[in-house]
Amino acid sequence: MSNTTPLRRAGFALTGPVIWAAHFLAVYASESLACRWGEPAAHDAIVAGATFFAIAGILLHAHRTVRNTDTSGSCEAERFIRLTALALDGLSLIGVCWAGLAALLLGACR
């Protein structure tokens, strides 16, 4: 059997960007579908909900990353992965807010 711990840690670091990508897909797919159905109000509700849950998920992941940080027993690679995860969470949070605000401020189905 192989040791999958490094892959799990690397996958853990990519949680923020995965949430960001899912949010981006939800925002722009809802734009397309809402315009096709002729329901721009549904787009606003979907975007608001997706943005709320994406922000909550990213903040929860960042909180868990900070809470699980053990500086005394961690090796250099583990600390690097945790810092990378926090940086990716920050960038993902900015991306989610940017896409969510743009979708909510600009009218759907123009």
From TrEMBL:
Keywords: Membrane, Transmembrane, Transmembrane helix. It comes from the Bacteria. The chain crosses the membrane at residues 12-29, 41-62, 83-108. This is Uncharacterized protein. The lineage of its organism: Bacteria, Pseudomonadati, Pseudomonadota, Alphaproteobacteria, Hyphomicrobiales.
